[in-house]
Amino acid sequence: MSAAAVMGRTLAVALTGMHGHLVEVEADIGQTLPGFVLLGLPDQSLQESRDRIKAAARNSGLPLTRRHLTVNLVPAALHKRGPGFDLGIVMAAYAADRQVHGVHGPVFLAELGLDGRLRHAPGILPSVMAAVESGYPDVVVAEESADEASLVPGARVRGFRSLHEVIRAFGGDPEPPLASAVPEPAPASDGEDRTTSVSLSGGHEPDLSEVAGQFEARFALEVAAAGGHHVLLEGSPGAGKTMLAERLPGILPPLDDQTALEATAVRSLTGRPQEAARLIRRAPFQAPHHSASMAALVGGGSGIARPGAASLAHGGVLFLDEAPEFDRRVLDALRQPLESGAITLHRASGAVRYPSRFQLVLAANPCPCGWGGGRGSKCRCTSLQRRRYTAKLSGPLLDRVDIQVTVPAVDAAALTSGAGGEDSATVRGRILPAVERQAARLRPFGLSRNAHIPAAVLREGPLAIEPRARAGADAALDRAELTARGHARVMRLAWTMADLRDADRPEAEDVDAALYLRRRSQGEGDA
Question: Hey, CA dihedral for 429, 433, 436, 441, is it positive or negative?
Fold first, then answer.
């Protein structure tokens, strides 16, 4: 028998962050002493698959060959990680032994249990995306991964509960498996929308009508939602900063198809299939504690860096409560994604890139004790303590925050009147037409939100604001009250103001309102 006659080939996917590489799994059965060799730069978890695969095959009614089995993962120079290659390896081994056929075409993505059950492997969604983009739309996954894999347009998904079922589906004739290897039927879905797990927890949906007073901060939140702008809320404890931030996702527009697929793919990498079984349409909300590390916020870890809260907030809101209490280096690490909408993490084993187009909401007290706002009669902080506290939010970071407003303490009349402001549905009703207007205007530039317009586009061309209208911002730039970046952000805010009032172009009043919202927390513009 020739060597070519005992070769089996299947396809799998190796992930580097969210980027997938198609991998050909080659299996060869030799005439030497029995053994199982795995080649192609596998990591430790993949090396362990040898014993796992042998046990799964035996318990599924079709043991692997007793001759020498060599499995090679091509390209050999690419690092392979994780248990998602298990199914591809065992099917290639069966093909080499002529036990199955038709396996070189589908992409196999599943982990094996010792009893032969197919288990969910992390990263199914980006793996299927890579397979479809490479021209291989047929994928075989565990039954619990089928819903997630089916989210990819063009994918033809087959889900199985056990290796025994896969063998039979590809022409094999295994013996009946052990009783313990027969999976129990999956519980029926209760129909609950699982996308709520990526926003605010609990059954209650936060609504803007619950916020007492704070009409200026509410308006700032509306502008931020309409244009995709970042926000700083500064005020004394109990003023409502956290309440306002938690209600921002409720007035944001639904995620578009591409953003929804990217946001869901990030969650697929966490290995929790319940969070990636459906496309995320509602804007995610992430609120890490101020003790969060660099890896927790922007991503990291050993080996290939994992996504952090900034990537999990892609398409939604990243809320940093008590922002000055975060490590300054951690906060400054957000400067890259605030500009580019993505995070690139470099490690010795390679670089990965995760999408991170979020709206940043910072909440801060005016001083360490929190009572330095307003009259400041209760404040116990020295001037040095105040300077050190405010210096924790660096100038370059704040320069990237479009809206900076003071949230004053709520008075008794607003708190006890029982008459709340507009609810989230009413505010969202004004925001959605503004979002549609800017999307239509920015489509020729490949953009959708005002906050993402490049500064060069704002200086010349159809989006440049007339000198008469932007005179106030130009004067602030000449007085060094604005940086060049700050000037561009005021122009973006002015366009959002115009969109909210259904105007074709920003006027001087829009630029003045944008200046007011940007400079409020710095003590400017206070009447």
Answer: negative
